[in-house]
């Protein structure tokens, strides 16, 4: 299974915010730190804000801020927020055109596999995946503040 770039970017936004001074930053700073499109990040941040994971504010002192405690944000929450299709095989999705649907045992196997996948993602929190504060700050050039300044 492969997730969309938006799901990947959502995790990157949250990692940045988790280790950033004051746990906030601008979309431009986050895009620059990760070398990714600012336009894509705007959409990602809007979706995260809609889910109550981050808050946004315009103007001086504004930006993106973690709304919830990193220990309470699971990777599973983020994936469910950012993705809308987890049908790894057609019979798990809303449209079922497979000729062997209903007589094949594959649907149950893939459904259990998906359940196991989310069980792992639901155990991992933002706090867990961002545990290496110093390493993340260095990689994102946040040692001396946003943008490495």
Automatic annotation (TrEMBL):
Signal peptide positions on this chain: none
Keyword Hydrolase: no
Domain of life of the organism encoding this protein: Bacteria
Keywords, alphabetical: DNA-binding
Cofactors: [2Fe-2S] cluster
Protein's UniProt name: Rrf2 family transcriptional regulator
Source lineage: Bacteria, Bacillati, Actinomycetota, Actinomycetes, Pseudonocardiales
